[in-house]
Design a protein that fits this description.
The structure holds two protein chains of two kinds.
Chain A lengths: L1 E12 L2 E12 L3 E5 L6 H8 L7 E6 L2 E3 L4 H4 L2 E4 L11 H11 L4 H14 L15 H13 L5 E5 L7 H18 L2 E6 L2 H5 L3 E6 L2 E6 L1 H6 L4 E6 L3 H12 L4 E3 L2 E6 L2 H11 L6 E5 L3 H9 L3 H10 L1
Parallel strand pairs in A: 3-8, 3-9, 6-7, 7-8
Antiparallel strand pairs in A: 1-2, 1-4, 4-5, 9-10, 11-13, 11-14, 12-13
Helix pairs in contact in A: 3-4, 3-5, 4-5
Chain B lengths: L23 H22 L1 H23 L12 H31 L1 H6 L5 H24 L2 H4 L8 H25 L3 H21 L8 H8 L1 H13 L15 H22 L5
Helix pairs in contact in B: 1-5, 2-3, 3-5, 3-7, 3-8, 3-10, 5-7, 5-11, 7-10, 7-11, 8-9, 8-10, 10-11
Amino acid sequence: MVMLCAENLTRRFGSRTAVDGLSFTLERGEALGMLGPNGAGKSTTFALLTGMLEAHGGRILFDGQPISPTDPAFRARIGVVFQKPSLDDKLTGRENMKLGAALYGLPGRVANPRIEKFLEMVELTDRADEPVERYSGGMKRRLELARVFLHEPELLILDEPTTGLDIAVSRRIWSKLLELKRESRTALLLTTHDPEEATLCDRIAVLDRGRIIAEGTPSQLAARVGGDVVSIETDEAEPVLADLNARFGVDARLVEGKLVFEQPGAHELLPRIVEALPGRLRSISMRPPTLGDVFVKLTGRSLAQESTKDEAA
Amino acid sequence: MNPPMASTSAVETTAAHIPARPSGIARELAAIHVLWQRDILRFFRQRSRVAGALIQPILFWLVLGTGLSGTFRMQGAEGVGYMEYFYPGVVLMVVLFTSIFTTMSLIEDRHAGFLQAVLVGPASRTSLVLGKTLGGTSIAMIQAVLFLCLAPLAGFSLASISWPMLIAHLVLGSAGLTALGFAIAWWLDSVQGYHAVMSVLLLPLWVLSGAMFPPPEGTIMATLMKLNPMSYAAAGVRRALYGGTLPSGASVGGASAALELAVVAGMFVVTVALSARACRRPS
């Protein structure tokens, strides 16, 4: 059953359209990842859904009814996790939890057992009475998650939930999220520029320049790549590129200084390429396609490249 | 995120069908209460802030008071020394500075990210204003009461102070100033900008309130002071310290006690409305 439905959401900043007629649906207990580089419109979409920004067009339906994301009744049913921790550093972990519960109007008798339960779940019970300013980045993110679970949201909206965290912390956070999704049928809507993180979702919408350019399960999207990804490093990119395309009938492109193409049964082709171009290759490798490759295939640009470029700008 | 707002919205705004969980009013009250509690907790947790809040007005009063006492003479009340004259002004300054500092935390909250958690929650923006205003007012009152313990040293007997009048002025005055600070902090993006606005707007208002010197009769200054709402708070605090009667020469153009309180109450209503309106705009 569809829980959240966005129809034609649009938001402009001056002459730039950051979100351009975005439509998607999300079912109860489903995880939808919005994958795209910085500047693709993910953060604006997040802000529109959480009511931090007003839409210039389109509408949002929740349980089939049009709603405003600033409606308190809607907000009471969703939980929002920001990329940047939204905790009070001077207060302890437990005090932050109490504050979070009170902001959602939960009385103490309801909130207190939940506070202990979720502190336990994110493994912060031991440190709950320390001021948050003494927490590491990963602990803050875990506390933030524990806090958002307090009012038992039916839908969690998360902005880059594990950006900047190390792999071990990211895995722990994801195991908690998936546990919640499985046990409480909470729907997850998250933005990410990390293809690996997106793979953990049931469905992915690939965003580019404010539009959804592809949507499907991780395997459906990976299948669009059409075979394994072959990547070649060479000092003479242009001539090798021409040779490859002419002699082997592949569709190689130059991406971030490497020649890249997709090929079903690439393992048979690799030895032939190496023999045909002696001394001209520095390295050649193949691997199964990732969502990052899907993005390259769809846009001709790389996710990582776009993200670094935007951060530098 | 701080983009320009657009005037049109195509997102429909009805959701009567969504059952609210805790009732609306209970939730708003809980939010106001917890935001108030947070400001108090934070105040006592920052020891340097508590110490500064106590020492700064005392120093200010002693240094400026003794420094200017030789040259001070108030027309119509020759017996009043500067230490005595300046004391009510410092009480008002305590309230003013506290309000400024508690609302400045709104900018820090936005930068540190805390504010966004409040803004995406179901509590209304008005509750945010009220919680913050209550927090600022409570801290101002704690500091004012501590400073008032020194009133006998300035020549005011604690027993003869008109406490209801004093409390009414301090509560309404600090709530009004906190709400004003909130509105300003909401519009500004940096603590530096906030300091700048405060030093060109609020400090002159305090200096021109009669806190530091009585209105020089027949001058433009006297007219300015009459137009300054903070003058009525300063006069009200002074009147309360004298048990209800102002020494002649210290009144704002002969305003009565009722008028003084009415102006302070009016300022409170206007500034709360202003900040509730300001924060409907996205932060």
